[in-house]
Amino acid sequence: GTTTITNNTDNYVLTATGTATINGESNLTFDGSILYVNGSLGVGVSPTARVHVKGSGATSSTTSLLVQNSGGNTALAVKDDLNIGILTTSPSAALDIAQAGVGGNYNALFLRAGNSATTSGSNQILFGYSAQTNYAHAIKTRHQSANAIDNAMDFHVWKYGDAAATAAGQYVM
Fold first, then answer.
1. Coil, strand, or helix at residue 45?
2. Strand order in the sheet with 74-79
C-alpha cells in the first residue's frame, strides 16, 4: 500500500491504504484519512470538534464509534443509524442500556439529580413530545438525607391551558 503524511503548518493528514506495522502492532489496515488539524483529530472527516468521527454508512449494520475495555467488552457503541448503545453493540433505540445480570446489585441507569425535601424544581426525568420540549411531563424526586419522612417521587404532567413550553405544570401523584 501507500502512505502519505502531509504537514501543512502543523495540520497533519495521514492518507494510507494497505497494511502497516506501527509500534509493534502488525496488520493495521488503512483505508481513508486521519486528520490532525490545529489540535483536533478527525477520523474520516476534517475535524470541526476536538475529536470528530464520521461513520461510513447510515444503517444499524455500521458503527461510527466503538469503545471497549481491555477485555474487548463493549462500553459504548454509536451506530450510523444514530442509535447509541451502552454495554451493547446492537442498540435498538436512540439510547439502549443493556446491563446484564439477574439478581445482585445491577443498576442499568442511575440518575443523580433531584431536590431537597422542601423543593421540587428540578426534574429527574423529563418526557418531551415529538423531538421537542413542548408539552413535557416529568418525574421529580425529593430527598431528606437519612430521614424517614419527606422522601418522594412526584409525577407531573403538562396540563391543558398551560403554554406549550410549560414543562410538567400539574402535580398528579
1. coil
2. 63-68, 74-79, 84-86, 95-97
95-97 and 115-116 strand pairing: unpaired
Which parts of the chain register pLDDT below 70? 1-37, 165-173
Q: In whole angstroms, what separates CA 37 from the centre of its chain?
A: 24
Residues 155-173: tens digit of each pLDDT: 888 877 777 766 666 666 6
Distance CA 98, CA 47 (A): 31
Q: Which three cell numbers stand for residue 139?
A: 418525574
Of residues 74, 70, 65, 25, the one with CA closest to residue 44: 65
- The pLDDT of residue 4: 59
Residue 154's DSSP bridge partners are: 140
| Set of cell numbers at residue 7 | 504537514
